[in-house]
Amino acid sequence: MSHDALQLLLVEDNRADAYLLRKLLVQETQIQLTHCEDLRAALHSLDQHCFDAILLDLSLPDSSGLETVKAIQQANPETPILVLTGLDDEAVAIAALREGAQDYLPKGELQRSWLIRAIHYAIERQQNLDQLQHLNQELVRSNQELEQFAYVVSHDLQQPLQVVLGFAGIIDALYGDRPDEPIHQYVGDIINASKHMSRLIRDLLHYSRINSAPKPVECVDCEAVLDQVLLDLQPAIHRTQATITTDPLPTIYGNETQLGQLFQNLLSNAIKYQPAGQRPRIHISAVQKQGEWIFGVQDNGIGIAAADAHSIFQIFHRLHTREEYPGTGIGLATCKKIVDRHQGQIWVESEPHQGTTFFFTLPQIPIQG
Ligand code: ADP
């Protein structure tokens, strides 16, 4: 908002205080002051005019304390509020800041120069805050659009891919009795590439759906989640003769499907990233600390160099070729997005050639918002 003169609304029922403030402020020609003595009049004034800032006494005849700040803020969220307090009202003043007031001014200490400065600072801060909030909303919106785009594209790609796979299978069957023909090799390559693309699309679909899934607030028994994951991983566990041990796991608040995906990705990596011929030994731990659970998935595999400890959580970032270890590079990015959504943290500790432990935290109490 830009005016030649600063438009201020003073809400103060104490005549002496109002007189003092008016006297300090009107020496300043660049200020126009409107004065109200109660909340009702102030709300009416805010309805009729635009102000650059509001000087607000909290104890009014028709409202008191934080209720006054809330009412004014609700009516006019974009105008900065400077709360006028008594000298011993610091606790209330700080509570008012938490409610969104920009500053507080102890009445007994008012001096003209810093009063003007405080008002200008409050206006600047409020403008920056509004801009930040606006940019944040834009960011959230564009992220949602991107996720929706990834979802639609990956969903629509599945169907033509199934057609390719279907016909490749038919050609493969036609040449089944002539394995030496080069076409047999070509079709094999088409089938392998299509299967990889299908896995990529499936993983991308999971990734893009994380933030639109139901809020992570249900009561989830991690033991039951793990049982299901171990059942799904049975073929890989059997093939590699992996041993998997676990601490007793807690019940926490989260999204059950996503926590299943999290365990599934970490465990399948722990089974996969092993030296050729080695039997995977994996342990799942859960430790309670300062209001959260710290989970660990520890393996005896190939390990990760310290330099790669952060980049592996980026989407499509892989440390090996597909020939060495198959994969899409989406698993850990998905894990990170799931843990972020549960307001937790995920990190890795590893010793190359010795093994790796992935840690993640989950809240003990339902998360907010
Ligand atoms: P993918 O396994 O499909 O390649 P991820 O996002 O799950 O994708 O993992 C990213 C990279 O992190 C992997 O390519 C691998 O190099 C490394 N990695 C993940 N888990 C482990 C592990 N338990 N041990 C060693 N390296 C791992």
UniProtKB/TrEMBL annotation:
Gene Ontology terms, MF aspect: ATP binding; protein histidine kinase activity
Catalytic activity annotation: ATP + protein L-histidine = ADP + protein N-phospho-L-histidine
Pfam family, one: HATPase_c
Keyword NAD assigned: no
Histidine kinase domain span: 152-366
Phosphoprotein is among the record's keywords: yes
In-chain residues carrying the UniProt-annotated modification 4-aspartylphosphate: 57
Entry-linked InterPro entries: CheY-like_superfamily, HATPase_C_sf, HATPase_dom, His_kinase_dom, HisK_dim/P_dom, HisK_dim/P_sf, Sensor_kinase/Photoreceptor, Sig_transdc_His_kin-like_C
EC number: 2.7.13.3
Enzyme class: transferase
SMART domains: HATPase_c (SM00387), HisKA (SM00388), REC (SM00448)
GO terms for biological process, alphabetical: phosphorelay signal transduction system
Record domain Response regulatory: where: 7-122
Alphabetic keyword roster: ATP-binding, Kinase, Nucleotide-binding, Phosphoprotein, Transferase, Two-component regulatory system
Membrane-crossing segments per the record: none
PANTHER family: PAC DOMAIN-CONTAINING PROTEIN (PTHR43304:SF1), PHYTOCHROME-LIKE PROTEIN CPH1 (PTHR43304)
Protein name: histidine kinase
Species for this entry: Lyngbya confervoides BDU141951
